């Protein structure tokens, strides 16, 4: 029997890790080639990991909610016959290590054993944590961090208080080891029994001055978490209420929305647009377009084409903010906010939107929209956006105040198209007529986008819409 290592596949240039959300196969289950074995999730996209071979799943190397790096082996599949594919190193190579490797292994074992003995004593209060306890958190912890916390007897509340220095504030190996060192030193200054022998030696004076240097930087870790945590308002619940936990995607959306509002100074500009020409042109050409190109022609690709054109006129709307720096983006990558069947939101990105004609834009919009609804988006499909458009008119909203998709600086909401009475100016005079109109709602980051720029941009979009050529071809 050959053994095949199922690895976490590469999911785009900007994706380095994913979280296991569900195992679809259990040890002992038969797996067919190209059959999904587990479900994973990145920050915005959920997807499946299929097996490239047929066989039997013999081992799961990670558990649900574990964070796995791209390229790591997540499972072992036993394949009938054939050669070993991506198999682990042969036992023979492990049984005969070089002298350098053997010496290093002995030193590591000594270090681990010393660390266990050294840190076991301070951690004696309370009930020791269990492995299950670390799964009851919305915060991501790597298996290594969880194992260190379990071995050192760090409670869930302590782990939550540690400020991480990793991506998105995650606790790294160095963070938790620094906390362990802090816990190890802290009791020595608090317990008088420990300090008495030290005072009897000439080195007692410098020992008292050192804790000020060591403890101060380590104490910074718990403080930001405590200060950032808002006061929770108690919620009244009775027997008729139903309590439903947010799914992972909703938790992420909630987190990103709050962070965006806390990061950007949101300002809105609104403008009403006459889109009668666009309405009439689409009604005239949508059947012909679908017959010739095999794609449905909605209003979205038309509007996206116009927004991309306006961004070329106002490149300072196509920027990102990184601390005190402004990054001017060369590519115009339009995010297209889309609602999923479960009510969640996702923003696939149309890359180089300014280089697409209407046909290319329609194909891109339909492809991303269909794959979003089917849950077939790849992680890279939601990366690299420089500006976002959301169609709130789909749900009948006239206008809205959308939240900026960080680190972008603007987002445009398209309202519902309505038939309204309007004053029509002609050389023969003004008269009242029925027109198709909609509102554009432009949210922008006032830290870097002034009202003149934000207002001028949305006005340019409106001008392009109203000047739409009814005789154009597609």
Query: What does the main sheet amount to?
Result: 8 strands, mixed
Taken from the alpha-carbon principal axes, the silhouette is globular
CATH domain class name of the largest domain: Alpha Beta
**CATH fold assignment of the largest domain:** Chloramphenicol Acetyltransferase
Cα radius of gyration in angstroms: 29 Å
Helix fraction by DSSP (H/I, runs of at least 4): 25-40%
CATH superfamily placement of the largest domain: Chloramphenicol acetyltransferase-like domain
Structural class by SSE content: alpha+beta
Termini gap: 58 Å
Low-confidence stretches: 87-96, 117-125, 188-227
Instruction: State which percent range the strand residues make up.
Output: 15-25%
Helical stretch count?
Answer: 13
Number of domains: 3
Which architecture of the largest domain per CATH?
2-Layer Sandwich
**What's the pLDDT, averaged over the residues?**
81
Number of strands: 18
Enzyme class: transferase
Cofactor: (R)-lipoate
Region (Disordered): 119-138, 190-234
Domain Lipoyl-binding: 3-78
Task: Give a written overview of the molecule.
With 474 residues, the protein is of the alpha+beta class. The chain has 3 domains: 2-93, RNA polymerase II/Efflux pump adaptor protein, barrel-sandwich hybrid domain (OB fold (Dihydrolipoamide Acetyltransferase, E2P)), CATH 2.40.50.100; 97-224, no CATH class; 250-466, Chloramphenicol Acetyltransferase (2-Layer Sandwich), CATH 3.30.559. It contains 13 helices and 18 strands. It has helices at 91-95, 99-120, 143-152, 156-161, 173-190, 192-199, 204-219, 222-228, 248-263, 276-293, 299-313, 358-373, 451-466, and strands at 2-7, 17-23, 30-31, 36-41, 46-50, 55-60, 67-69, 73-79, 266-274, 319-322, 325-328, 334-339, 345-346, 349-350, 387-390, 410-414, 418-426, 429-445. Strands 9, 12, 13, 14, 15, 16, 17 and 18 form an 8-stranded mixed beta sheet that branches. It has a 4-stranded antiparallel beta sheet with strand order 1-8-6-3, with no helix packed on it. A hairpin with a 2-residue loop joins strand 10 and strand 11. The longest helix is centred in the N-terminal third of the chain and has 22 residues, at 99-120. The chain is globular. GO terms for molecular function: acetyltransferase activity; lipoic acid binding. Keywords: Acyltransferase, Lipoyl, Transferase. Residues 197-234 have a biased composition (Low complexity). Residues 140-180 form the Peripheral subunit-binding (PSBD) domain. This is Dihydrolipoamide acetyltransferase component of pyruvate dehydrogenase complex.
